[in-house]
Each structure stands twice: as structure tokens, then as C-alpha cells.
Amino acid sequence: MSSLALTEKRNPDTINIDLMDSYQIARTINNEDKKVALAVETQLNPISKAIETIARAFLQGGRLAYFGAGTSGRLGVLDASECWPTFGVEHGMVCGYIAGGDRALRFSIENAEDSADLARQDLQNFNPTPKDIIVGISAGGGPRYVLTILEEAQKRGCQTIGISSNPEARLQQFADIFINPVVGEETITGSSRMKSGTAQKMILNMLSTGAMIRIGKVYQNYMIDLRLVNEKLIDRGRRFVSEIAGIPYNKAAEFLTAADNNVKTACVMAAQNLSRSEAEQQLQAAGGILRKIIKP
């Protein structure tokens, strides 16, 4: 019999959680969650290497794709879905796949994680090239779906990243970069949607956000390539232009309209007193990096 993965072992600190009142349960879960950020902190070196690898791929026209089963797959889809409105990237630049397809986002399809055929099908749908980065996500690190994804991606010449809470994760043999936040035993035995899932969410945020920062999608800490697709985001865009260019809110709204709701272009127009075409030319010359044009 194979040794038990860390993510499947019992947590000695929560053995009597079923005897606790609601406050004690909340405190116990919170105490376990405090361990997650510390575990992620131990992985800053591989995380930073992964960020740089993804950023280089983006600058060369490559894409990023997350693959996982269950909670891991859902978190990958979530992170990928948020990149379009947050950073204004084209659909398809960051993708998320879950074993079992879109139905598995809402319904548990537990046997999907054991299917190499589903993995090959999803990888073929993404159709990776050597420019692309493939990320396999799994708490335990052993589902056939994720192993197949990473193995096949390497055969296609892709760089691969593996994320797992298990130090003995099998996926690391197919990962060029292995990110391993050891969060310890779960609060509820085997429930890796808890601490392992939280660690995965934190790491995926770091990977996508870090790479977007590195390619110029952020100025100071403003998400200046956001898409203004609702009232909240329109207001946010106006505030960003107002604060970056140092102009009144109503003037920022005028510049945004003239810039066809492109925050970055509106900032250059306002700060440099330029036309839209002149601002766009400056941005193109600067590789889209606003810091090269507006220096606080």
C-alpha cells in the first residue's frame, strides 16, 4: 500500500471539532487558515520564477493555461476568467480548464480526475505551442488528469508549472517549476478545498497579477488596462485618470470619452496635453508601459 499523502492525513488539532460550539469551530478553522500564508511564503522563489516565465511568454505572444480537477480546476477557471476585465487582455490569453468540462464547475464529477482521455481532449482543445505555459493544479498532486496534462505538455515543448500541497506530489516529475506550499493536514480530513484551496487561490493570484504587472498592465498600483464594462468600472476608470493625471473628475470623464474608454490613453492625453492618436503613438513607442511616459 502506498504511503498516505499529507493532504489525506488527519489533523491532530481538530480531532474534536465535532464537539465544539460554533465560535470554537470558527476559531479553529481560522487558526488553521493562518498557516496558509506562511506556507505560501516559503515558495516565493519558485513563485517569482514562475511569474517571470509567464511574463516572458506573454511578451512573446504566448498564452497561460490552468488545468485541474475539482476545487483546483474551479480556482484555475476563476483566476483565468478575471484576467479579461481586470487587465484588459484578449480572451484566450489566459485560460482555465477543469476535468469534466463546464458542468464540473457546478456539479461534482469526481471520476473525471482519473481520466487521461479527458486530459488529452482538453489539452488538444487548448492546442498549446512551445510559446505557451501550462499550469497543473492539484492538492495531492497525483490525479491522472493533471499528470497527463503536464506530461503531454512537456512533450509538446511547453514550459510547465505544478502546484501542490503534497511534498511527494507525483506531478513534480512533469513540472519545470514546482510550487509546494505545505499547509499541513486539512481541518476536515481530506477536505482540500480548505487550506490547500486557499493556498492555490493565493498562488494563482500571484502568478497572473505578477505577470500582468511585469508586462505593463499596472501603473503604480492602478489596474490601468481594465475594461469599463459597467457603472462601477466606469467610475473607477474616471477616478484613475483623475488621480494619475491630477485633473478633476469631470475632466477625466471627458478625456475617457475622447479616448474611447481606454484609461491608459486618457491618462497620456490628459497628462501630456495630446490628441488621442498622439497618445496612442507614445504608448506604442513605450511598449504600453505608462511609467515610461508619466513619471510620478
Describe this structure in words.
With 296 residues, the chain is of the alpha/beta class. The chain is 48% helix and 8% strand. The chain is built from 10 helices and 5 strands. Strand 3, helix 5 and strand 4 form a beta-alpha-beta unit. Helix 8 crosses helix 9. The model has no long low-confidence stretch (mean pLDDT 95).
List the helices and strands and how they pair.
Elements: H1 22-41, H2 44-59, E1 64-68, H3 70-87, E2 94-98, H4 116-126, E3 133-137, H5 144-155, E4 159-163, E5 177-179, H6 195-214, H7 231-245, H8 249-258, H9 263-272, H10 276-285
Parallel strand pairs: 1-2, 1-3, 3-4, 4-5
Helix pairs in contact: 1-6, 2-6, 3-6, 4-5, 7-8, 7-9, 8-9, 9-10
- Helix and strand sequence: HHEHEHEHEEHHHHH
Helix/strand class: alpha/beta
Overall outline? globular
Q: Roughly what percent helix? A: 40-55%
Distance between the termini: 62 Å
| Spatial strand sequence of the major β-sheet | 2-1-3-4-5
Main beta sheet, described?
A: 5 strands, parallel
Strand segment tally:
5
Mean pLDDT: 95
